[in-house]
Design goal:
By secondary structure, the chain is an alpha/beta fold. It has one domain: Alpha-Beta Barrel (TIM Barrel), CATH 3.20.20.380. It contains 8 helices and 10 strands. The strands form 2 sheets. The protein has an 8-stranded parallel β-barrel, surrounded by 7 helices. Strand 7, helix 7 and strand 8 form a beta-alpha-beta unit. Helix 4 packs parallel to helix 5. It is globular, with a radius of gyration of 17 Å.
Length: about 240
């Protein structure tokens, strides 16, 4: 079973490779659920990785309904990923009513070629998952990343099984959200083709002086004195369970 690691740093990319992951999904914006990483991060990841590198194409946090300027940014970011040698990109666009924006997703899939495309967890915010599955297949994407429209993949296990059966080999279903060594086998038994995880842990940052009177995060409360990274041990533990 393929293991994909969602990496928010070069350290995490290298840890994913060391642990035997097949693919890295490179992101920025950890606390927004993943946004497009910088030119420099993509370039350096490509220089260091022998495994597949997929790049998140998401111009901002929030919902997945984008205006024309945001769509143009996505198109240009896809071109950047292609120019830098990425193997694939990751995106998803919804209509305001929760349906899949087939037309614009299909345009980006064509623009991305010959890179592969994963339709990300925008799928989990979509209306009518079985119709959404058919719509994503129509766009030409090669896989869907989904938690089965639940906060965690293990909670969405029943829908994951349903999606695998309905897909019938026409598109890959990759299970993600809260994947770990304790639930990996159960998720593999859904028939999902791959597991997606961060394998994250934390360590103290390098700062010895700490100004605790303020935070740089204006929306969410985070520990800015800790570094979040993908753990080799956590990734290997999942890989050892599912083979």
């Amino acid at each position: 079973m393929d293991i994909e690691v969602c990496a928010f740093s070069i350290e995490s990319c290298l840890n994913a490779q060391q642990a035997g992951a097949r693919r890295v999904e490179l992101c920025a914006g950890l606390y927004e659920g993943g946004t497009t990483p910088s030119h420099g991060m993509i370039a350096r990841a490509r220089q260091l990785l022998q495994i597949q590198l997929y790049v998140m194409i998401r111009p901002r946090g929030g919902d997945f309904c984008y205006d024309e300027e945001e769509f143009e940014v996505m198109r240009q970011d896809i071109q950047t990923a292609k120019n830098l040698g990425a193997d694939g990109v990751v995106f998803g666009i919804l209509n305001p009513d929760g349906t899949i924006d087939v037309k614009r997703n299909a345009e980006l899939v064509q623009w991305a070629r010959p890179m592969g495309v994963t339709f990300h967890r925008a799928f989990d915010r979509a209306l009518a998952p079985l119709q959404a599955l058919e719509d994503v297949i129509q766009t030409g994407a090669e896989r869907i990343l989904t938690s089965g429209q639940q906060p965690t993949a293990i909670a969405g296990r029943d829908l994951l099984k349903t999606l695998v059966n309905a897909a019938a080999g026409r598109i890959e279903i990759m299970a993600g959200a809260g994947v770990n060594s304790q639930n990996a086998l159960s998720l593999a038994q859904t028939g999902a083709h791959a597991l997606h995880l961060t394998g994250k842990t934390t360590r103290a940052g390098q700062m010895t002086f700490k100004n605790t009177n303020l935070t740089m995060a204006s929306v969410v409360s985070v520990d800015e004195d800790s570094i979040v990274f993908s753990s080799v041990d956590n990734i290997e533990a999942v890989k050892n369970v599912v083979g």
